[in-house]
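Incident log entry.

Two folding requests arrived from the same account within the same minute. Monitoring flagged them as a possible duplicate submission, but the sequences differ. Recording both here for audit purposes.

Request one:
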Amino acid sequence: MASDAPGRGGEGENSTRACPACYADENDLAHIRFLLQQETISADQLGTAFTRARVPDVPEIRELFQQAQPKVIEVTRSL
């Protein structure tokens, strides 16, 4: 199933970027930043949420979840 969303491998304007995953990461962090601006949450609260999260037992998903945590915490601290 193809997606027309930019940077997600579809025919969107950013689909020719060298690193679609990098674009998705930047785009996801922008969405996370927006959400964190709407709701006040501390880095400590996020850390607790990360430890309680139910992450699928798929190595690639677990790895991405682990890699995203410091980025999300940094976004929280920058607000």
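Request two (distinct sequence, not a duplicate):
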Amino acid sequence: MVIGTVTNTGDADGRNVVVRFRLVDEGSGVVRSTQTEFIARFGVGEQKQFTKHLDGDCDRTCYAEIETEWDIS
């Protein structure tokens, strides 16, 4: 399970925000699992928390990555 928090620290609302969660095998760098969240409007100072169950077959240790992309209004 991965719990991630994303905060809009900018000075403009984000529009069409995509948040990608990835489970990565530390040894090989291979992405083992992904999930995506879409936020139509993400206000200045707003914070969102997500809980994701990323299931992947990691031979060794895995770590989580969170990536965001957005349009600025």
